[in-house]
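Assess this one:

_____
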Amino acid sequence: MKTTLYLQNLKNKASEALILKRLSEFNHIKNISFKEQFGTINFEYVTKDDIDMVKHALSEIGFPPFGEKNLLRRKKAAHKKGKKLSEAG
């Protein structure tokens, strides 16, 4: 089956390369393609669990689907906050 996800932060070929590298680890994900101008990724999958796995992996590397929380942004904000606290103390 095929699906399309709209992603946050999909900006350039470097983003696409990072996503391809990460998703290439999954056996059931094939024929990955991007439409940068629309911020979308298309791929073939076998089960609904494959889609959930891809969404989670994308979120971990900073490209969550729209409607999902951006975990990387939260991690960066927490890191900055921790850094400011350590500088003040």
User: Anything to note?
Assistant: The CA atoms of residues 56 and 64 lie 8 Å apart. Helices lie at 13-23, 48-60, 71-88.
